[in-house]
Amino acid sequence: MKYNINIIGAGIAGLAVGIRLASRGHRVTLFEQSGRPGGKVGSLSWQGYRWDTGPSQLLLPDQIEELFMMAGEETKRTIRYRKLEVNSRCFFEDGVIFDAYGDPERLAREMHLATGEPVERVRQHLERSRKIYEWSSDFFIFQDFMHRGTFLSGKLINALLQSGKLDTFSTMHEINARHFSSGHLVQLFDQYATLNGSDPFRAPGTINAMAHLAHVHGNYFPEKGIYSLVNGLKELADKIGVVTHFNQPVEKVVMDRHEVRGVVTRSGLFSSDVVISDMDVYFLYRNLLEEIPFPVKEFKKERSSSAIIFYWAMDGTFPRLQLHNLFFSGNYRDEFRVMSRKKEIYNDPTVHLYISSKYVEGDAPAGKENWRVMINVPENLGQDWDMLVEKARENIIKKLNRILRENLETHIQKEFVTDPRTLEERTFSHRGAIFGNSFNGRTAAFERHPNFLRKYKGLYFVGGSVHPGGTIPFCLASARIVDQHIGQ
Q: Which residues pair with 264 in a beta bridge?
């Protein structure tokens, strides 16, 4: 049976589910309130500089390949990417510097040379991360918990049989601290919790599976930057007949009792059999679902972290730096303790520095670089963000100057700033929380909003605020789950 399908939002997940369903012959119309596709995956330009404003890493690129295969196209014609040799260059306050290589063996040798950690311990940790991923991914990433068949499947039974080995009863930090003697390695592997906006001192050890994705599956980077993924998917969607309406926000999802009937925009009613939302579920319920009760309990759960981000047009090049660079806090536990209080930011934050012009010719003028400098902060609860942004800038510049032995103020030609307020305004992320609800706590993965509700026929949810989470591969996984369920 072929359906008439309306999709709200042209983020990565909205584009992906549109491509999947159009490839199967369904009639797909996509509505985007802004003038561009991508959602949180954005781009900023100024006088020859260009910055990616969303994610900076591509994991599990086979999901991108799968979309092109379904549409009968070749990925490489549109999106070219390569596996990174160095995932990130790591700088510590005590002067230790090392490269976190993507290759596991090279990583293990580098860790040994830099910290004295035995090579075998690094291998063992990555092997443990591999097993966690393989035991849990089919159930926790690529299945929806609301599907009756999920709880009868062999995948769930296998996950339950292995539950003692999934490290769900210890925090990520407890697992890493027990395994490594080097505090530098504990901190490196702890930081993978931040890839989905979580706290390694409270998130379950299962999140260590992210290390397997980065160092075994590999961390990839598109030749034209992360935003080229959006351009490539939009071009593919156009080719296979997805109709896209930009600058046309949906005003209401029309329901007839418990069944979807379509969406309303300023242009009128667009009838459909299926409506798929790729917008933050908080704003979907608050603004568009008049006939469905607002789930108060859902939005009392802990939110993920947000960010303060500086985009700096740098006059000069810095050979010591890589595409991705991490400048670690001197006290990681204190950093997350301060962040958990929600009122302030830490005075020695871990700094994520991303310079796409290291790989992408044209992202900065010759002899210059485009720096995107980010720290993790709490979601927006009415804090004095103007003051906190100034404090963050002062702390970041002081830290980078000290470690790099530079005078960075003299190199910054132009600055743009994003904070939790502007993240919420521009991407409709509730309170600026980038990943929706956090993964802190043993049951957090089970408590994310599902991809569909049995009670309401024809209504589906994809994107970063629902199951399985907010990273690019998780958003793409949500599109696969919805595609499979509609097919069934």
A: 252, 269
Mean pLDDT of all residues belonging to the chain: 93
Beta bridge partners of 101: 86
pLDDT digits (tens, 9 = 90+) for 160-180: 545 566 888 899 999 999 999
Query: Looking at the domain that runs over 4-40+226-301+443-487, which CATH code has it been given?
Result: 3.50.50.60
CA atoms within 13 A on the CB side of 198: 30
The pLDDT assigned to 155 comes to: 54
Q: Which helix (H) or strand (E) holds 137?
A: helix 119-140
Q: How many CB atoms are closer than 10 A to CB 83?
A: 14
* CA distances, 111 to each of 34, 104, 142, 284 (Å): 45, 10, 32, 46
Could you tell me how far CA 65 lies from the centroid of its own chain?
19
> Would you list the domain boundaries of the chain?
4-40+226-301+443-487, 85-218, 306-377+381-418
pLDDT at 151: 47
> For residues 217, 218, 224 and 229, what is the CA-based torsion angle, rounded to 10 degrees?
30
Strands 4-8 and 274-277: parallel
| Strands of 190-339, DSSP E | 220-222, 243-245, 252-256, 259-265, 268-271, 274-277, 306-314, 324-327
pLDDT of residue 75: 75
pLDDT given at position 147? 52
- pTM for the whole structure: 0.94
**H or E element in which residue 246 lies:** none
